[in-house]
Amino acid sequence: xxVTTLARAWAVTRADGVVLGFTDHDTALSFAGIxxxxxxxxxxxxxxxxxxxxxxxxxxxxxxxxxxIDEADIIAGRWDGAEIRLWEVDWxxxxxxxxxxxxxxxxxxxxxxxxxxELRGLSEALNRPVGRVYHPRCSAVLGDGAxxxxxxxxxxxxxxxxxxxxxxxxxLSGLHGRDDRWFERGTLRITSGAASGIAGHIxxxxxxxxxxxxxxxxxxxxILPSPGDAVRLEVGCDKSASQxxxxxxxxxxxxxxxxxxxxxxxxxPGAPQPRRAEAQPSFxxxxxxxxxxxxxxx
Length: 298
Known about the structure:
Residues 181-264 form the Bacteriophage phiJL001 Gp84 C-terminal domain. This is Bacteriophage phiJL001 Gp84 C-terminal domain-containing protein. Pfam families: Phage_BR0599, Phage_phiJL001_Gp84_N. It comes from Paracoccus isoporae. Residues 265-298 are annotated as: Disordered. This protein is mainly beta. Among the domains are: 6-126, no CATH class; 157-234, Thrombin, subunit H. 5% of the residues lie in helices and 34% in strands. It is built from three helices and 15 strands. The strands form two sheets. The protein has a nine-stranded mixed β-sheet, with no helix packed on it. A six-stranded antiparallel β-barrel has the order 10-11-14-13-12-15. A hairpin with a 2-residue loop joins strand 8 (97-111) and strand 9 (114-121). Residues 51-55, 276-286 and 291-298 have low confidence and may be disordered.
């Protein structure tokens, strides 16, 4: 009878820097500076890989537990986009291991005390559309290499404290000198408390007297913060040419086409043109009378 000593081990690196190791072997393994725990509530199915440019894919499934994979962390989005590596390893000699998959976690779903996560290989990036989009608004991401806006400038971010929480609406205090709607389309990051590290996209931002603000997020945080928790607000951009010029002084790097014709004009080329001023009638001399009519009625 042939006995195999092959096992699988995988490591997950979350966006907040936490690294967790798992293995389907019945004892702990250690290599690459990571300790891989057995029966820790996670296992990976077979990885589907190809030699070409097809997207590699698999799934990770497991049970939710306080020791390794906490449901609150999944709700808070701390597992979204986490980097994942999968090895085949000789459990009798862990130094003999081979990396067979590297990618990231995709959609994470949960039901009945268990979770299921899609594994996306490195070739997943090939599914993204590339190329220039011709649109009146800017196609760059605020602060990236195309935008080049300096987001470290004073006034483009601010620190505040939470006064009240009601779902996706937060009332903040301690933030003075920012115009109404200054942070719309920006980011709110929770920097203390149980929800520390969670970020949300700002839908509405309203300045109130005495440094108070009412901020609506597009979705409520997975873990609701508490009054007194600290937050950081980062400026937003509506991608318009006027805001690029007036708010950021960055019009030289604007990546839109503000003078494109309107879409209605493009879709209806047969539409009537704007009415022009009508020409004034010109003077026409009277026609000569027919022969025999001259002097008629005299």
